[in-house]
Design goal:
The protein has 594 residues and is of the alpha+beta class. It is built from 16 helices and 15 strands.
Length: 594
């Protein structure tokens, strides 16, 4: 009998302990979590699981009802959690802040990019009511408690007792709510770092736009205009994402602040696709594919505007993200196709878009609430674009240089020899006329030189037609290496070249010039047999020459070369004068450059 009584007492004690434990657990759930002591040395102070949350499916609860309803199933907040909030649904957060002796002001920061639709901070006033501070995309930024890049609420702390707070968060789609506490001093410091990073990005963007405007005005290249549009739209998109736009560009437009990220992101992706098509000259390679790309970009803009106007945020987010990803993939496929077809700039454009694609994937994943907020999710897109801008600008510059060089060559065909790049006979005669007038005006001597290549037939017999055709090009290179920058070298016919040597120039200097040219032409040529050398005859005259005009002087030099025997051991001839004594080679007036 006593044994049964003992067992009954033990069972009763066990039941009482279990009930007490359950009551204790219930009492813990009924009380709000307490934030750790706010310490300036460890900032920012994250709320994490120190706060409790509850999702109001009706969206109708007031702070008075939330505070007085004991049946609300509060749950601890989770680090990096994504909360299933949509339109018409509210999320409530409660927490207590312990007494704070620090006189420095503290803030509650809702670090959510892009900004949340609506965030309210409630605290009790002296009369026992609830005082609201309101911020978010649906509120004009200039009406926030603290106009800032994202919602920021000043907190009224007590030095004697804990302070109870309620936070109400509303958004059109699921979101994470990284609430954290930050002191005024640390806030200023962190904003300086953010301002530095954003300043560098927007500075590069502005420089790129200015460079492109100059390019489209000066070079008439539509690719510059399209990239200027891309840079502007990308800059505006990042302004919307980071909060710069809402703070400085459209502080009075809460509706636009809420939809700007999606719309501007789609417009930027569409403009980038159009720029990609223009940069690789897709309209010339495949007109049908080019117009297909134009249609896709235009349709994407219309679809994005329609989705924003007709659908709620929760329904349009995934569609907007899919649209942007499709535009990026289309641009990448265009670049790959252009690369396969031999476009020399497509690989560099692919390289420039890799950091943007990587960083945009993080940003899009963050916008879709697939990853938590972090440094790369917040500012990775700016870093990717900052890496892209210099590469794209360099590609545009090289592309324009190539096109300008081709245009210059086409326009210069009437002035230069296409094979060697030397000036032709017409330009040579014009410069000779000017040099004669200049030498007479300045009272100094200059020189005109004609060079004949005399062994082309022998080269063709011994080494073939290819070597014979290549030899005049090599001679042109040797003449350019012999001439100074102020001198002129020309190709007058298939086997004849000319040089204008600017003065002051003496007879002794002229005497060294001819042998120097002969010696340079006799040196071996890279890629040709050692015995394949150019034999030349050189005729020269000092200017002014006995009142002769340029045409007369050239005619007499040609006659002098024609009169020289092909097998003559003498290779240098001075017009109407005996060959002067050769001065030392080290006194040559013109030095070779290679």
């Amino acid at each position: 009998m006593l044994h049964l009584v003992g067992r009954a007492l033990l069972l009763s004690v066990t039941i009482n302990l279990l009930c007490g434990g359950l009551l204790a657990l219930c009492s813990v759930d009924a009380a709000a979590g307490t934030v750790p002591a706010l310490n300036r040395r460890t900032q920012p102070v994250a709320l994490q699981d120190r706060g409790d949350y509850w999702i109001d499916r009706t969206g109708q609860f007031t702070p008075e009802q939330v505070a007085s309803t004991a049946a609300i199933p509060w749950k601890p907040m989770r680090t990096d959690a994504v909360y299933p909030v949509t339109s018409g649904v509210s999320m409530w957060v409660r927490f207590d802040v312990p007494p704070a002796q620090d006189a420095e002001r503290w803030y509650l920061e809702v670090l959510y990019p892009p900004s949340i639709d609506r965030a309210s901070l409630y605290t009790r006033d002296s009369a026992g009511g609830w005082k609201e501070q309101l911020a978010g995309d649906q509120v004009a930024v200039n009406k926030w408690p603290v106009p800032h890049l994202h919602p920021l609420f000043p907190m009224a702390l007590s030095a004697a007792q804990p302070t109870h707070y309620l936070v109400r968060l509303e958004n059109g789609h699921a979101f994470s709510a990284p609430l954290q506490f930050i002191s005024e001093g640390h806030l200023i410091y962190s904003e300086q770092r953010v301002s530095l990073m954003l300043g560098i990005f927007f500075g590069l963007t502005g420089l790129a736009v200015l460079f492109c405007v100059i390019g489209i005005v000066w070079l008439r290249d539509p690719a510059y205009g399209l990239y200027a549009l891309c840079a502007v739209l990308m800059g505006l998109t990042q302004a919307a994402v980071t909060g710069i736009g809402g703070l400085h560009l459209w502080p009075n437009w809460p509706w636009w602040n809420g939809v700007s990220t999606a719309l501007l992101g789609t417009l930027a992706a569409s403009a980038t696709l159009l720029f990609t098509s223009s940069a690789v000259s897709l309209h010339e390679r495949s007109p049908r594919l080019h117009w297909l790309i134009v249609g896709q970009a235009s349709l994407s803009m219309v679809v994005a505007i329609s989705l924003t106007a007709l659908l709620p945020a929760a329904s349009r987010v995934d569609m907007i993200l899919a649209l942007i990803v499709l535009l990026e993939l289309s641009g990448l496929l265009v670049l790959v196709a252009a690369w396969e077809r031999g476009d020399r700039f497509a690989p560099w454009l692919i390289l420039s878009y890799l950091p943007v694609i990587v960083s945009s994937s993080w940003t899009l994943a963050r916008y879709a609430e697939r990853i938590p907020a972090g440094f790369f999710a917040l500012y990775g897109m700016q870093l990717g674009l900052a890496l892209q801008l210099p590469i794209v600008l360099a590609v545009l510059m090289l592309r324009s240089q190539q096109r300008h060089e081709n245009t210059r060559r086409l326009h210069g065909l009437d002035r230069v020899d296409p094979a060697t790049g030397l000036i032709n006979g017409h330009v040579f005669a014009t410069r000779l006329f000017r040099m004669i007038a200049r030498s007479g005006r300045l009272d100094h001597q200059s020189a005109v030189v004609l060079i004949d290549l005399i062994n082309s037939e022998q080269i063709q017999r011994d080494f073939g037609r290819k070597a014979a055709n290549e030899l005049p090009l090599r001679v042109a290179g040797r003449l350019l290496s012999t001439a100074r920058e102020i001198d002129s070298a020309a190709r007058l016919s298939e086997q004849r070249f000319g040089m204008l040597v600017e003065g002051p120039f003496s007879a002794e200097d002229a005497a060294t010039l001819g042998p120097r040219i002969v010696a340079r032409c006799l040196m071996p040529y890279k890629g040709l047999p050692v015995d394949c050398m150019a034999k030349v005859h050189v005729a020269y005259a000092l200017i002014p020459f006995q009142g002769s005009t340029g045409q007369e002087l050239l005619a007499r030099l040609e006659e002098r070369l024609a009169a020289a025997p092909a097998n003559s051991r003498r290779t240098v001839f001075m017009l109407d004068e005996a060959s002067p004594s050769q001065p030392p080679w080290c006194q040559s007036h013109i030095q070779p450059r290679d």
